[in-house]
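Researcher: I'm comparing several assemblies side by side, and this is the next one on my list. It has 766 residues spread over two chains. Same procedure as the others: predict the full complex and return the structure.
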Amino acid sequence: MLNVFLVVGARPNFMKMAPLYFALEKAGVFNPVIVHTGQHYDYEMSLAFFEDLELPEPHYFLGAGSGTHAEQTARIMIEFEKVLLQQKADLVIVFGDVNSTLACSITARKLLVPVAHVEAGLRSFDETMPEEINRKLTDGIANILFTPSPDGDKNLMNEGVDHGRIHRVGNIMIDALMTILETIDASYEKTLLQKLNLKKSNYVLVTLHRPSNVDDRDTLAKILDYLEALSKKTSVVFPMHPRTKRNMEKSGMNVGRAAGLRIIEPLRYKEFITLEKNAMFVLTDSGGIQEETTYLGLACLTLRPNTERPITVTEGTNELVDLSNIEQESEWSQSGNWKKGKIPELWDGKTAERIARKIIEFCEGSRSGQRRAGDA
Amino acid sequence: MKVLSIVGARPQFIKAALTSREIREKGLQEILVHTGQHYDFNMSEVFFQQLNLPKPDYHLGVGSGRHGEQTAKMLLETEKVLLQEKPDIALVYGDTNTTLAGALAAVKLHIPLAHVEAGLRSYNKKMPEEINRIVADHCSDILFCPTETAAKNLQAEGFTNVANDGKLISRNRPSVPSCRPASPLVINVGDVMFDIALQAKQLTRKGKNNAAQILKEYSLKSRDYVLVTIHRAENTDIEKNLKSIMAALSQIAETGPRVFFPAHPRTRKALEKYNLLQSDSTTRITVSEPVSYLEMIALESNARLIITDSGGVQKEAYFFKVPCITPRKETEWTELVEIGWNQVVGAKKANIVKAALAALQQSCEDKQWACFYGDGRACDRIAKVLQDCL
């Protein structure tokens, strides 16, 4: 059995890891080991996610917690190195673009353990995003790069990455999305919508968390102005982390001022997807939601000047908006004339299987490589 | 305008010494941070003294440890200094854990970063140094390349803002493409090690480190000895290889020149273990204790031939126009092999002897010499570019 370590740190990683965990388990030749770095400091919240995804509890929890980028990265490196020295890893798999992704890639490579990066090749070309740095550096040092779409391949090739390291396998988050959609039935939907006093296709779902939107007081004030205006016409629901809410209140923002604007606690995965699939449209700055809405064929307004997931705009239902055109775009999205979009190639729920197959090939290759070297 | 230089390992002290001087001469403020990666403080002190490196403003005292742990601690401590000093640019050197930690700390704080010795690749991801190089390069805003090959390596990795198409830039107020906020700037300034070597050679012309004195101390005559350094695991840990190298040295010594071999502690241990240290007084091979940096420069620049498995010494041999033989299977400095100054021969006795005898008979006078590593003014260029960019 090959010990394959799956490293997750924050919420968007969990959905990407779950399908692969099960695919590796099913393949019969792997011992998948889950390492939770604890970068997402709310352990309860992440356990709820694990529960929705039917994942076992993490085998290792590194308890990295929050802090500056360097503090967090450093703590993860120290703790992950201990794990790798304690239990032999044949491969470390990292996901996405959070600090854990980079910290664990560096740690593993320095111990000469091969690394595979799931969701490789994404680029926003915006160096002010910490995620962009994490993506570029992780792709620079990982041995195997699993890309979700052709733009990922192209970005990597432009960076001179050897073709042999790139494997286009599709979007693994769609695997998780398809699985959770199967568990959501009409009665579950009804109960949840009733609980939140929302009507199907009659509310806007908002998620904003990026520093570019929520850290600057003026920008945030303008966003809230818009949401307030919007909430006079329709229900607006905004799951917000309590910490973000506290920060906003501390800086004098009255987040509860608009009657129709519902700020709620963060949701579990299943709850969130249920709200998402029944929304009129989604306003977000998150990466994964741009992809989910494309799969669901739901209008998505992304409040960012760029996206590392351009295929959601060129093929899917996503549009980038800014404060100057957000109102116009949101009206358009309700007009029934919003672009229809299509589901990109290989976003078919079979990405995890493809990755598992590639990993088997890689491990066999490196084993026979070792044998050859041993013979010589 | 404030430059914050981050050093920690032995080679970095040497590289920072001269760059530092040029930076300060051009009126830029420099803050020097020593991570403490090279925990042998005595050795570090010696370098600070001999090379007139300014004393560090910060000593982070990280010390040794496992790779991840050491890097992590340096990352933490470097971030604190960066937050306190808020430099206009951070400067890192080479490919050690200090380089990686400094680069990561700066990039995450959005502090512009310059990397000296950028673009070097062995294309062997099994080397921890290769990870450090890749990460530092991809974090950097200004990439100071030592050679055209290094600049081309970066070009192949998608860097498009390459000054003078990767060729050495002019020294006179080099007009460089803008470094901010456009894409990272790749710029061939030549090899800092060449500057250092020339500068160090100057220091061996007089004073207590003068070459004549050093040679006398070791009973050597200029151009009449073979200088040897062996420290790589492939040569020290494999008995057969070390034995064969020692046998080759014996045979070379019999033909005339003395052989002088300052041994790395690990090499000495191996020599003792395999019983290869002959205390025979008739032997013309001297295995000595390690020598200081300036002693080494004096010994290199006066040798008739150098036999080494060190990458740095292969280059220094070329700087001083001394022929070189490398008892390894490969080298990072392939251009030296192509131009004929270095011969890569492996550890077989017959091959080493054959190459050495040929080199000893040949005159170096009419050998072609090319400026692969610039002109010994890399530090001046680096400081000028920094001055222009800040």
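Model: For your comparison table: The first strand of chain A starts at residue 2 and ends at 8.
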